[in-house]
UniProtKB/TrEMBL annotation:
<feature type="region of interest" description="Disordered">
    <location>
        <begin position="1"/>
        <end position="41"/>
    </location>
</feature>
<keyword id="KW-0175">Coiled coil</keyword>
<protein>
    <submittedName>
        <fullName>Uncharacterized protein</fullName>
    </submittedName>
</protein>
<feature type="coiled-coil region">
    <location>
        <begin position="59"/>
        <end position="97"/>
    </location>
</feature>
């Protein structure tokens, strides 16, 4: 560039830039004059309507989301209540089972005591029979039947104890 000949940067492209103003004016429409003020008002109105529609859609979506969340929350509460009820039922069953086991153990101890008593009685009876047999030389049939009955009772009691032990 030569000295003293500066170009003005604001005037650089004046001849080549497109103008923002039209060379021919826009003809006004018959029922609605097309002025800048009317266009601005129409655009503002249209923009406000769009904003209102967006707000309505947004509020509708929020309401649907709240309703959906409330339903899910209610379903979760119901599941929690059902689970709590099931836990309570299981606890009750466990307590009942524990009581039954304790009762069965008590019954087993009683049966074992009865078996021991029967065995002692049988031993005494056997000794008595042997003593009588030696004295008289014969064993009375009724005594033999009595011994057999006692042995059967002992066997039955022992079987009951084994059955109870296997079920517990």
């Amino acid at each position: 560039m030569a000295k003293g000949k500066r170009k003005n940067p604001t005037n650089r492209n004046q001849d080549h830039s497109p103008s923002s103003e039209r060379s021919t004016p826009i003809p006004p429409s018959p029922g609605h004059p097309n002025t800048t003020e009317n266009l601005d008002t129409d655009l503002k109105t249209f923009l406000m309507m769009m904003i209102e529609d967006i707000k309505k859609d947004f509020h509708k979506s929020l309401k649907e989301l709240q309703e959906s969340t409330a339903k899910e929350l209610q379903a979760l509460k119901e599941k929690q209540e059902n689970t709590a009820k099931q836990v309570e039922i299981i606890k009750e069953k466990q307590e009942n089972t524990s009581k039954q086991v304790m009762e069965m153990n008590k019954t087993i101890l009683e049966l074992k005591g009865e078996v021991d008593t029967i065995k002692k009685t049988q031993s005494k009876a056997t000794l008595e029979i042997e003593t009588l047999g030696k004295r008289s030389g014969t064993i009375d049939a009724s005594i033999s039947n009595r011994i057999q009955e006692m042995e059967e009772r002992i066997s039955g009691a022992e079987d009951s104890i084994e059955n109870i032990d296997t079920t517990v």
